[in-house]
Write a structure and sequence with these properties.
Nuclear Transport Factor 2, Chain: A, 1 helix
């Protein structure tokens, strides 16, 4: 999902991955996890100036 205007992009990203070692301070160690991230980017002069990200860490913890 993607929403954009002149200076912002908002997106909901889905990840299905197997991080190595730790991820978000969690000992994932190669186990498969699936989660979504809601992220907002603000642009200035064609470059990303600021990023806001929300990940449901409890959803990842529940999978471990």
């Amino acid at each position: 999902m993607l929403v954009a205007d002149a200076s912002h992009i908002a997106s909901r990203l889905h990840f299905d991955c197997t991080p190595r070692d730790t991820f978000l301070g969690l000992p994932v160690n190669g186990r498969r996890v699936s989660f979504t991230e809601n992220v907002f980017y603000r642009f200035r002069d064609g470059r990303i100036e600021e990023v806001w990200s929300v990940i449901d860490k409890q959803a990842i913890e529940a999978q471990l």
